[in-house]
Every structure is written in structure tokens, then in C-alpha cells.
Amino acid sequence: MSATPAELVVSRRTALTGALLCVVSGTGLAVADDGRLELALGPTSSPQARRAADSDCVSHVRTQRPLLSLTFDDGPDPRYTPAVLDLLRRYSARATFFVVGANAAAHPELVARMRAEGHEVANHTHDHAHLTEISDAEVRDQIARGRRAVGDVGPRLLRPPVGRTSTSVSRIARSLGERQAFWSSCLEACLHDGGRAGGRDLGGAVEPGAVVLAHDGGRVVGRWAQEYPRDQTLEALPHLLEALAGRGLRSVPVSELVRVGLVR
After folding, report:
1. pTM
2. Contact 187, 212 (CB under 8 A)
3. CB–CB of 50/211 below 8 Å?
């Protein structure tokens, strides 16, 4: 038995029925951020549903060491990426950049700089494709082309754009040797009171083992075109890094964070 919608959301009253569906379909139930239960057929909208769709994905690492991971999506972008790299170098922070393959191909010098300065470069698909909205063949193509643009240097990490995955996307990613990596905190979600306050507040609240999402790219062209200014991110980043340094927390790439704790 399989659910007819792409994503099935059920109330707590019908949780037993949903649980039976999960047993039959081989997926899992998860509690969404707003307290609802959702059947993780996709597209996922919460860390719990992502975990139900892919039990091996990375969103947070349980560790006692003073480490976390800053991650940056959607680049490289010559308007923002160099400034992000400058700030990371100033604070001796190393990060993971989930690059869009088309952007990486357009700006190989920025990808080379990321690696030269000790950062990790990972896969964000070739065109920033919303993987739960396309066929399995297209999913495979987007992940494979994104990987070719990134190259085989370092661990094979994949961050699905918009954080949307499913059991089908997870299966395809695994078959291509890619481990999905999401996040536990988002810098841009903290910027409602401005960059200075947002960076400082997140830096004071985030815990060891966190995976922090931020963006060094604003432009994607093609079918999934987008254009977002990242000026507030650049404003917030030094305050975030300063707050982390004041607490003795250090950013390392996701693959290093995974090695020092228990993946959640």
C-alpha cells in the first residue's frame, strides 16, 4: 500500500493508521516542527521527517568537544563568496560549502580557493534542483552532474536544495555514494532584528555539534532560478564568528564533525 499524495500529513488521532501505513510502505512517521505527524514519503519539511526518510543523514552531531560546522549553500558567487572566505580566514574557521554545480563550473577559481584554505566542498546538485519535484532519472542526473562539478576530492556529502528529500531521493543518493547532510540551525532565519543582533544571538545560543546553515550564494539561473541578496548574511557572519570564538567554539567541516561524535 502506498500513499497517493507526495506528502501525507496526519493528525495525532489518526497516528495508528499512519503507523500501519508506514509498516506496509517501509517508510517512517515523524513529528514535524509544528507538532503534526507526517509520513516521510516526501517531500520532507522537518528534521524528524528527513531522519525518517534517511536514517543515515546528518543534521546534528552529539559531541562533548567544542566543535560545530558552519555550512554555506548556493555558491560560489563572486559577489559574496570571497567576503565569506575572508571572514572565515580571519577567525581561523573552516566550513563546508555546498556548491551548485553550474555555479562551481562558472567560478572554478572560487572552488579552488575554498579547498586551498582548508574548507570542504560538497554537492548541492547541478542546478539547485528541487529533487522531490522531478523524476528519479532526473534526480540521479542532478546529483551525478553536481558531483562531477565538485569532483571526487573529499567526502561525498549531498545537501538537497531547500532541504527537501524523500525515501526515493535518499535511495538514489545512497546508490551514488552520497550521504545527505542537512542542518540544525539557520543563520538567515535569525536575521529579523538585523545582521548584528542575529549573528550575535545565534552565536550565543548554538551548541557543540550543531550544523549551521548559511548562504554564500544568491543567484541560480535556469528552471530553479532564484535571486536573493546575501548582504545581511555578510553583516551577521563576523558577529556570529566573534560570539563563537568568545565561547571557545570552533567550526570544522561536516566530515570532521561527524568523526568526533554521534550523528543525529
Report:
1. 0.85
2. yes
3. no
Q: What angle do CA 137, 133, 192 make, to 5 degrees?
A: 135
pLDDT digits (tens, 9 = 90+) for 174-192: 999 999 999 999 999 999 9
**Active-site amino acid positions:** 73, 215
C-beta of residue 59 within 8 angstroms of C-beta of residue 254: no
Query: CA 144, CA 155: separation in Å to the nearest integer?
Result: 14
Q: What number of other Cβ atoms are within 10 A of residue 101's Cβ?
A: 23
How many CB atoms are closer than 10 A to CB 233?
A: 24
What CA–CA distance (Å, rounded) separates 127 from 105?
Answer: 11
Grid cell digits, residue 133:
519535484
Question: Helix, strand, or coil here: 162?
Answer: helix
What single DSSP character describes residue 92? T
C-alpha cell at 14: 489518526
Whole-number Å distance between alpha carbons of 152 and 245:
32
